[in-house]
Specification:
It contains 6 helices and 8 strands; from the N terminus they run ββαααβββαβαββα. It has 194 residues and is an alpha+beta fold. The model has no long low-confidence stretch (mean pLDDT 97).
Length: 194
């Protein structure tokens, strides 16, 4: 069953951006930047075939994991939000269901370097902690994807793992990977007081 994000009051607005769940109507706009040169370099799947992209995009289970980021009505990026169970001992496993999420991000190259990815990622943490009431959020990338882990650090995430040559890149071979995390109380402590 596709994951349920109905607890959130959509769209979620940040200073300059708006974030909402992806719909089938977002196919063209997301294809435009997902197929741009270089964008797929570090992603789980790179796309240069429109038909293959559409087939994957139309999968309802996958679509439910994607949010789109809009600026003045234009889609400038997308984000991944995968709600997960935490590891738990069997006797308490029911208390560890759907309590955390893994997040990810893409900003269209013609909109990068202007703080939009940072602002959208901060909005995404708000969605996870305030909107969904999760307790922990993680993010992962290849260690060579410096733009991505710098973003994790900018939004207050902590590097929790540096894994040596544990992730296979399609052309670069076995590479190092990093995992970051932030807890709900750590995120709350960073929020400005009204
Ligand atoms: C990872 C990615 C989302 C980062 O996006 P970005 O556009 O570089 O991010 P931002 O604009 O928020 O930040 C970039 C820089 O601009 C700076 N910046 C400029 N204006 C800013 C503002 N108004 N507010 C905050 N930061 C600003 C940031 O401080 C940052 O500086 P740094 O490079 O010295 O750290 C982007 O590189 C991308 O889409 N990559 C391809 C897909 C990908 O690899 N995704 C991750 C897979 S794990």
């Amino acid at each position: 069953m596709p994951q349920d994000l109905s607890a959130v009051d959509w769209p979620v607005r940040t200073e300059r951006l708006s974030i909402r769940p992806c719909t089938i109507d977002d196919l063209e706009a997301t294809w435009r930047f997902r197929s741009a040169p270089g964008v797929g370099e570090w992603l789980t799947q790179a796309h240069d075939d429109r038909a293959e992209y559409e087939e994957r995009f139309r999968d309802p289970e996958r679509m439910a994991l994607i949010l789109v980021v809009e600026r003045e009505g234009e889609i400038i990026g997308d984000q991944m939000l995968v709600i997960e169970d935490a590891w738990a001992q069997v006797e308490v496993a029911d208390r560890a269901r759907a309590v955390q999420a893994e997040i990810g991000w893409i900003i269209a190259p013609d909109h990068s370097g202007r703080g939009y990815a940072t602002e959208a990622a901060e909005g995404l943490l708000g969605i996870c902690f305030d909107g969904l009431g999760l307790r922990r959020v993680t993010a992962q990338c290849f260690a060579d994807n410096v733009a991505s882990w710098r973003l994790m650090e900018r939004i207050g995430m902590r590097r929790e793992e540096y894994a040596v040559r544990d992730a296979l890149h399609r052309s670069r071979g076995w590479l190092d990977a990093v995992t970051y995390a932030i807890l709900a109380d750590e995120w709350r402590a960073r929020q400005p007081v009204d």
